[in-house]
Design goal:
Alpha-D-Glucose-1,6-Bisphosphate, Chain A, domain 3; 3 domains; 455 residues; globular; binds magnesium ion; 16 helices; five-stranded antiparallel sheet; 39% helix; alpha/beta; TATA-Binding Protein; seven-stranded mixed sheet
Length: 455
């Protein structure tokens, strides 16, 4: 399985397997290219909690210093905090050492521009051109900048959160909040965040040493421990972050994981009651968002998958809320990035304002059932398969080819697309019932497998 181990370079950044495809040499080279692209200046460097993070971070410092940048060590910090800090510090850019929800053997690099946003397609391509050309603007020995460090990298983020949230109302709720930080970067900031919101924290896997207690993707099958803790300890709600703390899943007061799709639906519903306005989500996010927006009389715009695609459209449309259905809530009142802290804050605020339990709030969200699956395949294979299926299903539903292939049927949809970060084709279907969503996934997995094997 050589392909599985190969380096992935995409708009989502660089990801690879430590000891296989991602080496300190490579990290230094990417940092040299990024520093050259930025044109020197201050660059904030942060990392998630993976044990390989320090090695890559030091390589990144070397690369940035060699081309005359001024690296500022943000150390271990959640990725949204790093984005906010990059902007607050008026840095030229930021560089995150993280592989997000990928398993522990992976690590990677994400590249942030001066506004605290990930590089968009054209900026990313420009930067990667510099990487491939290898013409880096090395400086002479008398031009080196010192390495600086930021003692409280999460503070600007917390200040933005507390300014945007109704802190007094949340404090009055005195919520008992269980959080599973999966021993990831979120653990560096969660205690302070909850304490200042007057919550009674019940922390699980909150040692940020990157020793993931379970696979770090916050999907229901990985949240058994959190569900049991919420039920056994009588918490008002449970939250689960991924390893770099941009995504969030919710467990209700009965210890039931309500699915990461509903994180965004809850946040959208709440923000629209406070500040009605356009909503921007990706193509694979639940249709419940459309129903919620229609009830509020506001439009929904859908984008390609990938945080920066949603963020750019969100800024363009002056949307009040948006995100990705995988638990990635983007609330521009804090910062236009996926942010598990903004998501936690909004959901605690709904509980405080409505005096409703998470299960009651969930019952107010239109019911759709989503099934997510995948088939092994390269982007090239996916491209060929999509072309075939587009022809085959023309006229049987609305065909959207903005990103892979989405077919919208009357009460259901299916979306097939190559992953940005792994050699797989994702198959996502949503319908009114679980059995119908499963049927669609089975059908289209079968279609893909048939086409991938080829004639
Ligand atoms: Mg993440």
């Amino acid at each position: 399985m050589k392909e599985r181990l190969s380096l992935k370079v995409s708009i989502s950044g660089v990801r690879g397997v430590i000891g296989e495809s991602l080496t300190p040499q490579l990290a230094a080279r990417f940092a040299q290219a990024f520093g050259t692209y930025l044109g020197r200046g201050k660059v904030i460097v942060g990392r998630d909690a993976r044990p390989s993070g320090v090695m890559l971070q030091e390589a990144v410092f070397a690369g940035l210093l060699s081309v005359g940048c001024q690296p500022v060590a943000g150390g271990l910090c959640p990725i949204p905090s790093l984005q906010v800090l990059t902007r607050a510090a008026q840095a030229r850019g930021g560089l995150a050492v993280t592989a997000s929800h990928n398993p522990a053997e992976w690590n990677g690099l994400k590249f942030i521009g001066g506004a605290g946003l990930f590089l968009n397609r054209s900026r990313f391509d420009e930067f990667i051109d510099i990487y491939h050309q290898g013409e880096f603007s090395f400086v002479r020995a008398d031009k080196f900048k010192p390495l600086l460090a930021e003692a409280k990298p999460g503070r600007p983020h917390l200040e933005k959160l507390f300014a945007a949230l109704d802190v007094e109302r949340i404090r009055a709720g005195r919520f008992k909040v269980a959080v599973d930080c999966v021993n990831g970067a979120g653990a560096a900031l969660v205690p302070e965040f909850l304490r200042e919101l007057g919550c009674r924290p019940l922390l699980l896997n909150a040692v940020p040493d990157g020793r993931f207690a379970h696979p770090p993707e916050p999907v229901p099958e990985n949240l058994g421990g959190l569900c049991r803790a919420v039920a056994a300890r009588g918490a008002d709600i449970g939250f689960a972050q991924d390893a770099d703390a941009d995504r969030l899943a919710v467990v209700d007061e009965n210890g039931i994981a309500i699915g990461e799709e509903l994180t965004l639906a809850l946040a959208v519903k709440h923000v629209l009651t406070k500040t009605p306005g356009p909503v921007v989500v990706n193509l694979s996010s639940t249709r419940a968002i459309d129903d919620i927006a229609a009830a509020a009389g506001v439009p929904v715009f859908r984008t390609r998958i990938g945080e920066i695609n949603v963020v750019e459209e969100l800024l363009e449309r002056e949307a009040v809320i948006g995100g990705e259905g995988n638990g990635g809530v983007i609330w521009p009142a804090v910062h236009p990035c996926r942010d598990s802290f903004a998501a936690m804050g909004l959901i605690l605020e709904i509980m405080a304002v409505s005096a409703k339990t998470p299960s009651a709030l969930r019952s107010e969200i239109p019911v759709y059932r989503m099934v997510k699956d995948k088939v092994a395949g390269t982007p090239e294979q996916a491209h060929r398969a999509v072309k075939e299926l587009k022809k085959k299903y023309a006229g049987r539903g609305e065909i959207i080819t903005l990103d892979g292939l989405k077919i919208v049927f009357k009460d259901a949809w299916v979306h097939l697309r190559p992953s940005n970060t792994e050699p797989i084709i994702r198959v996502v279907a949503e319908a009114r019932t679980l059995s119908e969503a499963r049927r669609l996934v089975r059908l289209f997995k079968g279609e893909l497998k048939r086409l991938l094997i080829g004639p």
